Each structure stands twice: as C-alpha cells, then as structure tokens.
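Customer escalation, tier 2.

The customer says the design service returned an amino acid string that "doesn't look like it belongs to this structure." They asked us to rerun it and document both sides in this ticket. The original structure tokens are below, unchanged.
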C-alpha cells in the first residue's frame, strides 16, 4: 500500500479477476427491492436530489453519437471536421472534449444531418 492509503491493482488483458470473496450467486439472487434498500443504506451511494440532478449537464457520448447513424470513426471525423485521432481519444476516454468541442458535439447530436449538410457547403 502506498503512503496515501491507496492500493493500486494492475491487471493485464487476459489476467484472471482478483479474488474478492464476493458471493456472486447471493448477489445475483437479490431482488430489485433488496438492491435498492442496500444502496440506500450506503452513505456513500445516496441518490441525487432533484435540484442537484437538474443542475447537472448531460454530456454527449461521442461513441454512441457516431454509432447511431452507423458511421465509422473515419467517416464521422471527415463529415464533421474532427481529427480522427481526437475522435479516438474521446471515444476511448483518454481525453475529454474541451468546452467548445462539447458544444459542437451537442449541436451535432441535436441535428446531425443538418450539420453535415452545412459542413458540405462550407
């Protein structure tokens, strides 16, 4: 354990999952009501209040935005003038779009055909 109290676990693809001692059969047998009651009993997992939820902004899921019309990364990038490497980084969550890019993605999400048409005439 590090001096800050955080333990880091490194897993490589194909490695077995670490043993946690969790009884998954018991977890799978829980009803929705039991899961909800257990979540409410956890002070760190309280549901958001309506006013807090209303203040939150929805973030566009770039990969879903691209996949919805069935576009490849290359086609989406060319259609909307986004570097394909940047698009990959956003989809793989290595990087997050800055505020202007988030605004552009929201506009694309609202009317993808119109934005694509506008880009073609530019």
């Amino acid at each position: 354990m590090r001096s800050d109290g955080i333990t880091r676990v490194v897993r490589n693809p194909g490695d077995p999952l670490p043993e946690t001692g969790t009884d998954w059969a018991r977890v799978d047998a829980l009803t929705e009501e039991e899961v909800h009651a257990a979540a409410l009993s956890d002070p760190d997992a309280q549901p958001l209040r309506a006013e807090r939820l209303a203040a939150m902004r929805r973030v566009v899921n770039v990969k879903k935005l691209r996949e919805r019309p069935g576009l490849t990364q290359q086609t989406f990038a060319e259609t909307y003038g986004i570097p394909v490497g940047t698009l990959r980084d956003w989809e793989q969550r290595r990087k997050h779009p800055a505020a202007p890019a988030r605004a552009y993605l929201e506009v694309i999400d609202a009317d993808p055909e119109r934005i694509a048409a506008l880009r073609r005439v530019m």
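Tier 2 assessment: The sequence is consistent with the input. The chain has two domains: 25-55, 62-121. The helical segments are 24-28, 32-41, 50-55, 62-67, 73-80, 84-91, 99-110, 112-121. Sent an explanation to the customer and offered a walkthrough call.
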